[in-house]
Amino acid sequence: MASETGLRPLPREPLSIDRVLRTAIRLADERGLESLTMRKLAEALGVEAMSLYYYVARKDDILDGIVDLVVREMELASEGADWKAAIRRSAISAHEVLERHPWACGLMMSPARVRPGRMRYIDSMLGRLREAGFSADLTDRAYHALDSHIIGSTLWEVGYSFGSEGIEDFATAFVRNLSVDEYPYLAEHVGQHIAKPPVGETAFEFGLDLILEGLERILVAG
Predict the structure, then answer these.
(1) Domain 76-221 architecture
(2) Most buried among 87, 134, 203, 219, using CB within 10 Å?
(3) Of 74, 83, 222, 52, which is closest to residue 154 (Cα–Cα)?
(4) Residue 70 phi/psi, 5° resolution?
(5) What is the pTM of this model?
(6) What's the CATH number for 17-57?
(7) Would you list the domain boundaries of the chain?
C-alpha cells in the first residue's frame, strides 16, 4: 500500500539472530554494556521485546553471542616458522578489536563465557607456542603473560581515556604543585603524559615485544 506521499514504504529488514546480536554490539559500543537491556534492544530493532525471545531465551544468551562475535573479529595466530610474528599480529589484532569494543574485556574474563570463538583464538595461540618448541608448562605461562597484557593494557587505556578530557590542564597543575626535588622522577613521568607521544611503536606494542623477546630468549636457552 502506498503512503500519503505516494511512495511505497521500504520493506522492514527481517529479524534474525545475527541482526539481534549485531544491534546489541552497536548499543554496547555506543552506550556501554550496562545500558543493554531487552527493552532497549527491542526498541533499536523496531520490534516488541517479546519478539526477541523467539531468538534468545534470556539476556545471558545475548551476552554470550556478542562476545563470541567480537572475538571472531580477532586475527588467529597463523601457522608457520615465524611464531613471534604470528603471535605479534594476533595480539595486536586482539588489542585493536577490544579497543573498538572495550566492554568485551569483562565478558571475556568470565570462565562461563568461553565460547567457540574464544576457544579457537586460545587454541591458535597455544598451538603456535607449542609448535615453536615451548614445553606445555612454558606454553601455559607464556599464554597467560600474553593474555594479561592484551586485556590489561586495553582496560588501562579505556580507563585512562575516560578521564582524558582536561588531562593536560590537570597534569600541568599537578606538576606545578609537585615538589620536583622530592619527586623528580614522578614529575618527569607526568611531563611525558603532557607531551605528545612520539609517532611509531605504541605502548602496547612496546610491552608486547618485551614479552616476545623474553620468550624467545627462554626458548633459545633451552
Answers:
(1) Orthogonal Bundle (1.10)
(2) 87
(3) 74
(4) -65, -45
(5) 0.82
(6) 1.10.10.60
(7) 17-57, 76-221
Output phi, psi for 98, to 5 deg: -70, -25
Residue 31 to residue 51: CA distance in whole angstroms? 23
Tell me which residue has cell 570462565: 111
- State the amino acid at position 22 in one-letter form: R
Contact present, 129 and 83 (Cβ < 8 Å): yes
pLDDT by residue for the chain (222 residues), tens only, comes to 444 445 554 456 788 999 999 999 999 999 999 889 999 999 999 899 898 988 998 999 999 999 999 999 999 999 887 999 999 999 999 999 999 999 999 898 888 888 899 999 999 999 999 999 999 999 999 999 999 999 999 988 877 654 555 556 666 676 677 777 777 877 777 777 666 655 566 889 999 999 999 999 999 998
* Cell, residue 72: 571472531
Q: Do 76-221 and 17-57 have the same topology in CATH?
A: no
C-alpha grid cell, residue 136: 606445555
What are the respective helix, strand and coil percentages of the chain, to the nearest 5?
A: 70, 0, 30
